[in-house]
Amino acid sequence: MVIPLPLPFLCFFSCSFSFVLPWFRFFVSLFLFLFGLLRQATMLVPPWLESLLSTAFFTVCRTHGDAARGECNMYCLDCKEDAFCFYCRSSKHKDHQVIQIRRSSYHDVVRVTEIQKVLDISGVQTYVINSARVLFLNERPQPKSAGKGVAHICEICGRSLLDPFRFCSLGCKLVGIKRNGNASFNLEAKNEVLRERREGMSKEEEEELREGSRQDIYPPTPPPPPSTARRRKGIPHRAPFGS
User: Fold this and answer.
1) What region, left, alpha or beta, does residue 66 occupy, with left being phi > 0 and alpha being psi -120 to 50 degrees?
2) What is the pTM of this model?
């Protein structure tokens, strides 16, 4: 037996539904929009990068402080926690993605050969220190007079650069991505762009593209400046003694 609902109840239910439906659609659209922004930010910046840039390195390990290699200069990309030492790596992070941080003039650097496996570092200035090519993790302090009259400067902090790069460090590139969104740390996105550009190319054009992508990380060494020293004109002869 079907019990008919009262007419006032049906009217109230219909009015309530028509009032709630637009708000429901609004919140669903807002959720999808925020989810899209979060997904895009995750694609541009890996979730472990900000933690890496804010980590304090070269402190003494609490467990292996008395050991020869007890300084905390390792970082795990899987755990995204504090820095640890060489001995902690073998015991707690054996099968994880780990990078080693080094120091140059009291500033943290990482080797290009390590970081380029997990990050798109294009646009970041690299340096050769102790025969290894490295880049800095964060912005470095500089005098106010620096940067005047130089050809290349960092887009974020204004530090003078040696080569035509956009950023002086990973930290400045991160700020640039958040501010403008016209760069990325995502290796998959970079490789996808390269694949699309390679389609339909000849072998010569593909080789030029590959060489150009190398120069984004390893700029050509500029030729030495011409020497201004005066050359000696012939072999000097001693003046004869007077008679």
Assistant:
1) alpha
2) 0.65
